[in-house]
Amino acid sequence: MKHGKLYSTLAILLALVSCTNDEKEFMAPADISFSPAIAAATRSTESIYPQDTPFGVWAYSLQRNKKWESNAQTAATVLDDAIVTYADGVWRPTPSTEWPGNDRLTFFAYSPYGLGATFTPEYGIEFHDYDVTSGITPMFTEPIADCDKRLTNGCIPFTFIQTLADVEFMVRHVAPVDYKVYVKSITIDNISLQGNFNSLPTAAWQLTGDAQTIEFCDALTEVGISSQTAGTRTMLPQTPGRPVKVVVDIYNDRGGVTALDRELVTDTIKEPWGIGKYYIYNLVISPDEVTFNTDVIDGAKIK
């Protein structure tokens, strides 16, 4: 019996030593760092995030037995709109921040830094009073929840999603082969350029400001029988709900005028422009009408 008790005591001590060693390894200090990418133009491809563009991060900690989904309101703030920059091969917040103990962390990031973004657990990343004519494309991440220091060694990978939609018009004609067809204008009426964005509970834009007529082709473009790009613009996600208007000049095979400043109108664009998507409208022009079909790419193209 004494030997049995001794062996049991030794087993318990060995188990405690083993747990203590594991805990020490677990608790090894690690600075928080990041490995960002950008969702690109296909389902399977990501693009490298530009090293000269700082981004902002919020980070929150919870004990290991708690999950962000059900305990967000009690999480402690670790990073509060911290600027993250690239130096010496690593993306780190300023000031450098150590992972707190063995807590699990949840992260929310946006880019570029300095857009006046805000964060709340209810609405996520928010951009206020944004104007697409600024030329800046806001990006955000989905929640990077319940990250474990042991599994990440303190480095958090994530993918930025572009909040805007890219819209491209490609054109070709089906007039007689020897005809000359020139596109002078491609427009859509009643398009909004300003809005407010929130990433949670689902990513969405709320449109503000006055709607305008948007020009997609600002130069005289000769159209051939093969498709070519006539104009591309980055737009605020919305449902156009309007047709495309195309103004053309057409000359016959003898150089005579068939049409000058003829306005051709497509069917209404009913499909909404979604966040982070790329839309290609293939316009087919004849002397009397213009039709289109649409290609949609899941991720906005990287410029």
Describe the structure.
This protein has 303 residues and is mainly beta. Helices cover 11% and strands 50% of the residues. The protein is built from three helices and 22 strands. The protein has helices spanning 2-26, 68-71, 149-152, and strands spanning 33-39, 46-48, 55-62, 76-87, 90-94, 104-111, 118-120, 124-131, 139-140, 144-147, 155-162, 165-173, 180-191, 194-198, 204-208, 212-215, 221-223, 228-235, 243-251, 257-268, 278-285, 290-297. The strands form four sheets. Strands 1, 2, 3, 4, 5, 6, 9, 10 and 11 form a nine-stranded mixed sheet that branches. It is elongated and about 85 Å long.
What does the overall shape look like?
Answer: elongated
Structural class: mainly beta
Low-confidence stretches: 1-25
Structural Rg = 28 Å
Question: What is the H/E string?
Answer: HEEEHEEEEEEEHEEEEEEEEEEEE
Beta-strand share of residues: over 45%
**What summary fits the major beta sheet?**
9 strands, mixed
Q: What share of the residues lie within helices? A: 10-25%
What does the average pLDDT come to?
A: 90
Individual helix count: 3
Q: Got a strand count?
A: 22
End-to-end distance, in Å? 77 Å
